[in-house]
Design goal:
By secondary structure, the chain is α/β, with parallel strands linked by helices. It has 12 helices and 15 strands. Helix 4 runs parallel beside helix 5.
Length: 306
């Protein structure tokens, strides 16, 4: 049996282990949360290096892909600096390939929506989802400044995101990651903020922790596009009135794993041992697209409220 392990600096309450059949191989998927303890996460990477088939980096990213540029997160790289044998992925590969396929689902749902408006909570972390909303013809608000930096200024074009990334990410990438993103127990805390941007959107796309944390209590009739959903997340979305929940990764035993976990599972099942370099990944993305076609993976739609 192949083994793919996601070591996350997120909450250990979201830990889960399942076994799936993938590419003709039996793969054990394990998520291990360290509750924000980066030293513990680094220790687990060292201890399991060479003993598992693929690592996923959870609760954070090794870097951010905006259009064709890669911005490494220097404060995170120390987590995996001692890994020598096991390939490491953070989900960027699936964000660049699988998440773009949401465009077709959004086009199908569009006629039933009051208007084609969308909020992408953080485009620098979900460029594939941003592309999907734009390709489906939605008017998109990008909430990067709003929800990552607390600056209530919406952005409305891909060019503005690329410019913002070029100006700010070289500096922000050197800050402690927890200054920019909720880690550990903070991931389970609700803090509705700047909710008018949610209310103006028919579709909300992005990281599940950002959506859960900042959305208003009333989300009646809206569509959420995300992943890494637990049954508790789904129940919160249902209680708030969300009509459709679209997850970009498969729902396994009641939850959808993060892109990092599923990307690691694909590498483990395929027996791919080469290190993944997201800074020069065009060939890797083409390979992943081919695997996704073979697996017939596509976004999953759940109707939470009729």
């Amino acid at each position: 049996m192949k083994r793919a392990v996601s070591i996350s600096i997120g909450s250990s309450k979201r830990n889960k282990t399942v076994e799936i059949e993938l590419l003709g191989e039996r793969v054990r998927l394990e998520r291990i949360g360290t509750d924000g303890d980066m030293d513990k996460a680094a220790q687990l990477y060292r201890e399991l290096d060479g003993k598992v088939d693929a690592f996923g980096v959870g609760g954070t990213d090794l870097g951010l892909r905006v259009a064709d540029r890669w911005y490494p997160l220097h404060s995170v790289s120390r987590l995996v600096r001692d890994v020598r044998q096991t390939p490491v992925v953070d989900g960027t590969g699936l964000k660049a390939t699988l998440e773009k396929r949401v465009a077709g689902v959004l086009e199908q749902l569009a006629p039933s929506l009051p208007e084609k408006t969308a909020l992408v909570t953080t485009a620098v972390d979900r460029w594939g989802l941003a592309e999907a909303a734009l390709n489906a013809g939605f008017r998109v608000t990008f909430g990067d400044l709003i929800y990552s930096l607390g600056i209530p200024i919406p952005l409305h074009s891909p060019r503005s995101i690329r410019l913002m990334a070029a100006l700010l990410l070289p500096v922000l990438s050197r800050l402690p990651f927890e200054w920019l993103y909720p880690v550990g127990e903070k991931q389970g805390q609700r803090n509705p903020k700047h909710t008018r941007f949610f209310q103006q959107a028919a579709v909300v796309l992005g990281d599940c922790h950002y959506i859960y944390r900042y959305m208003p209590d009333d989300m009646r009739g809206k569509v959420i596009v995300t992943n890494t959903t637990t049954p508790e997340d789904v129940q919160t979305f249902r209680a708030s009135g969300v009509r459709w929940l679209i997850t970009t990764t498969p729902v396994l035993e009641g939850r959808s794993f993060g892109t990092n976990m599923m990307e690691a599972a694909i590498l483990a099942a395929a027996g791919r041992r080469e290190p993944v370099n997201y800074a020069q990944a065009d060939g890797y993305y083409r390979w992943l697209d081919g695997v996704l076609d073979e697996l017939k993976l596509s976004p999953q739609v759940q109707e939470l409220n009729a």
